[in-house]
Model the fold of this input.
Amino acid sequence: VLSPAVGQCKTVYRGWWDGRDVALLHLRSGTCDTEANIFSLLGRHPNLVTFHGVVYHQQSQMLLTELAPLGSLDGVIDGHAAALRGNVEAWKGMVLQILRQVCAGMVRIGEVDIIHRDLA
Done:
């Protein structure tokens, strides 16, 4: 485990597993089994992080997922906002590309009748 990022509902740790960078999600609400089942239902999709399994560490469960190398979506947007300041067309293009990718992921989530509480 390398470095944690604390969010509202979970702490995300960056780690190393099977020769690659991964994310370890420690959920606060004790819903690890539910989240693992949801990830399993979703399967692989190019616009969703890949679920690798559940890890047990010091009497707690954590989800093991693909690491989003650029971090959270809002962090990516904020990081590019400053770089694209003054270039409205480039900004619009980036936002449109992000929205298309988010929508594609949400379509997959909706296909298995799941409501994503952060985006609903």
Notes: Residues 84 and 90 are 7 Å apart (CA to CA). The domain at 4-111 is CATH 3.30.200.20 (Phosphorylase Kinase; domain 1). Residues 88-111 form the longest helix (24 residues).
